[in-house]
Records
---
Amino acid sequence: MAKGKQTLQAVRGMNDILPEQTPRWQRLENRVRDLLQSYGYREIRMPIVEKTELFKRSIGEVTDIVEKEMYTFEDRNGDSLTLRPEGTAGCVRACIEHGLLHKQTQRLWYMGPMFRHERPQKGRYRQFHQIGVEAFGMPGPDIDAELILMTARMWRALGLADVRLEINSLGSSEARAAYRQVLVDYLKAHYDWLDEDSQRRLESNPLRILDSKNPDMQQLIEDAPKLADHLDDESRRHFEALRGHLDAAGVSYIVNPRLVRGLDYYSRTVFEWVTDRLGAQGTVCAGGRYDGLVEWLGGRPTPAVGFAMGIERLVALLEASETEAVALRPHAYLVLMGDAAIAAGQALAERLRDAVPGLALQVNCGGGSFKSQFKKADRSGAEVALVVGEDELAAGRLAFKPLRGDAGQEHLDEAAAIERLRQLID
Ligand code: ATP
Ligand code: MG
């Protein structure tokens, strides 16, 4: 560290994901990607920055996100831009812009960083990562069920236990409007019990009050009129059919009448996967149906349903349920003794990689004594050290030395070494 210079740190709530952690992330991402593709979902990649207007219109002006969590700035042209706080808005925008919803259905997914200016704590960051899935053009409960069953399979593929499924129906927007009045009447009658946020929300977004995490409000919320008692017939049938699909597939769930989700654009089905193992930040995946959003953003009326999962929380859950550490280990470590071996080392390594597809080979760079190179070989986790020194070079051979177990060192020519490496990675 240079004397007198202050070191700089990352922005609060924005994390470096270090090399020890990335294998777990990659494993999760790879498994999820494979699974999504096996269900027929295709990847879409959107920009990280969008016009602020997009989020105001889609998420809603009176939500936590738009009111206080967005990273909004003016660019050099004076346009108001925002770092995306979630992916649905951008995904819908892109689909409309490129005509992806015209006379066709779409099953899409995306993965990447999202930004919200929240109070950082365990499981809650200002830059965090989501894998999001959106399905367009399918109005029925069958696609809702597909998404939920797919997430259930994801947890199995990842070896995650202890996540429970909670579902609810928000009804049609008309039913919600009727319920909203009943709820406002109830809340007004208990006005003094409401916290400041909720008093403010009473007119603008009363349903969100049901989502409050304030412990002092829980009894009031518990006793509030239930949305389920005000569902329209169509939504009731939709919800029953969804439950039928889940029951038939043997996926268990809890109907949580207070599950309303934080965003404005949901209708009918909403669901969350929740765990008790991560403390207060227990929701690892959340989603639902948002039939109105496409039209709201200027597209043709298009039914839609989707979900997003929080990668940080899933990784934390994986960590909590893992018995053994995940590490990326090379198969072999190439020890190079002396200038001539160093000069020949990179070309040799390339020949070995050509000859043994899938070989993870780490080359010692920067020289060093025999002892220090072996120490590095051992620390790399490699199974064998390949050693080339002056003698080996002269004889056209290399020493093949297993680093785990008791097998002894052998001297092999290149072809034989290649054969042994092939066996090693099988
Ligand atoms: P919460 O109630 O925890 O604030 P949310 O309703 O704001 O969640 P969504 O917008 O539905 O969350 O995002 C989907 C998922 O993304 C969440 O279930 C969670 O796993 C993850 N997530 C949301 N915000 C954060 C954050 N600030 N840090 C880490 N993960 C997050
Ligand atoms: Mg939130």
---
Amino acid sequence: MNKINFNNKKTTPCKIVCVGRNYVDHIKELNNEIPSEPIYFIKPNSSISEDIIWREGMHYEGEISFLIKDKKIIGVGFGFDLTLRNIQSKLKQKMLPWERAKAFKGAAVFSDFMLCSDFEGLEVEVIKNGETVQRGGVELMMYKPDFLVRDIDEIFGLDDFDIVMSGTPKGVGEVEKGDEFIGRIYKDGKILVEKSWRVS
Ligand code: ZN
């Protein structure tokens, strides 16, 4: 099983529950409809990777990611919900499930997770080749983290060290070989955690 770092210890998330279309500005950029209830999909533990490995048509989506224990948020980290946009578009058209586009090996890439039990003032930033391409935070989310955790637990059940990825702000785009990415989480305007990657 793949592990992530939380507070200087290794933990094993069983699953990652992702929220689709949680920022209005990102819904508009993909010409999607505003959902009447949250959209969820799941990435398995086997999709977790330390590195970003290039694949054709792959987009980055930077997301505030929460670590769960006892049905509550205990940690926060930066996460990439990597998406094969070309395949996802075809699956959407045919009303088919998204796993091939969202749950493949290497589709979930995280920074370390830091202790954090409240979500006020959290923001995510993605810097691609030195330029900020995404920045947004909890105040722009349609469904807030406390609601999402309760709702997801009711529907799927949340186990200790599962991860909830809370959706992506506008500015998603393609990943190319050799790209340099920095993913950051801010708390009240200060950097809480960051990690950098070079796409291989
Ligand atoms: Zn996403």
---
Amino acid sequence: MTKIKVKTPLVELDGDEMTRIIWAMIKEKLILPFLDVELKYYDLGVRKRDETDDRITTESAYAIQRYGVGVKCATITPDAERVTEYKLKKAWPSPNGQIRSILDGTVFRKPILVKNITPAVRSWKKPIILGRHAYGDLYRGVELMVDQPGKVEIVYTPEKGQERRLLLHDFKGPGVVMGIHNLEKSIRSFARACITYALSEKVDLWFSVKDTISKIYHAYFKNVFAAETQARRAEFEQAGVGYRYMLIDDAAAQAMKHEGGFLWALSNYDGDVFSDVVASGFGSLGMMTSVLVSPDGKFEFEAAHGTVRRHYYEHLKGHPTSTNSVASIFAWTGGIKKRGELDATPAVTAFGEKIEKAVIGCIEDGTVTKDLVPLMDPRPIGHQSTEGFIGAVAAKLKTMM
Ligand code: NAP
Ligand code: MG
């Protein structure tokens, strides 16, 4: 069999723990036997990030900017515990956060639906797409430990004009402080990316923050969204879709009663939390895809879940695992399909679609990993191991080639 030629290199970002093991299997069993592709490989495993003082992360983001499409494996965001576990020089920042800010991108997450899994929220019939703002707030926060009584103030020193001071808190005892920020430019490109994606998918756009409490910070986001959606009202009308602003808690309640089929734009932290809520509601975290889109049309595809640490420790003990590889596979297929589209090579796009069909076909035949078994109707008798599932997809794919 001759391999399908991919014109432009694909940027590959390797990762950590269980997903790193899955990543290698996917590449070996589902990609390289069929595709003639040049992979620009960046090892974002935590050890390599530490070894390179994290330069590898920055370099990988620039590679995505250069070549246009990247596929990324899940990575560890080190905390104090990880610093000890991996003997790291320091708790390096989140690679995803860094790549997002270099690309100024917006992350969209969309669940993979299959016929034989009914979402936990019974009203959900269509995907809920989540758009997570990818810059600032908690993820660019500056924190301070207050260990004795004293005043903490916010001081703004404009380049021209008068300094402004605001009392944050007059501490009578120990406590903690955090300063967060966001940028007009970033909020606006987030709003624009969400509008563009909602219009292209022909779904309603929701946006929610807590502007009743945060009358300046959150209200700023609300106003930018209002202005941007207003500016494109004609396009909304033409597409037959609408824009709704709701308070975050109201939106959360509404989402539980809705049939889905809308794009929910969320601030950075809310997007982090609700993407996991929505993913679990639709089935498993292993069934949630994620794509980072930059305003100038660069794409990075990945799974929405983490490195599945608990499974990795089982694997290290020599115990069999049953980790869902679907979202990681869809990271590869998302990248391959986009590469085909941008290069105008339909055979490449069609190959990406074939892998997806093979995956869905396996699940709908009842060939699944353990996480999906309790969600399925009818319930399959057994489940596959991590490698067993990928093997089944590879076997099905071969029959389709
Ligand atoms: P996780 O990897 O998302 O997994 C949490 C739990 O969810 C797992 O223990 C497992 O539940 C279930 N799960 C998630 N993905 C699954 C899959 N593919 N198949 C089957 N079950 C799955 O989160 P974590 O283990 O708490 O975090 C590990 C590391 O991931 C952290 O260091 C964090 O920094 C990192 N992280 C990275 C990304 C990213 O790179 N995009 C995102 C989030 C977190 P059971 O244990 O019940 O089986
Ligand atoms: Mg998360």
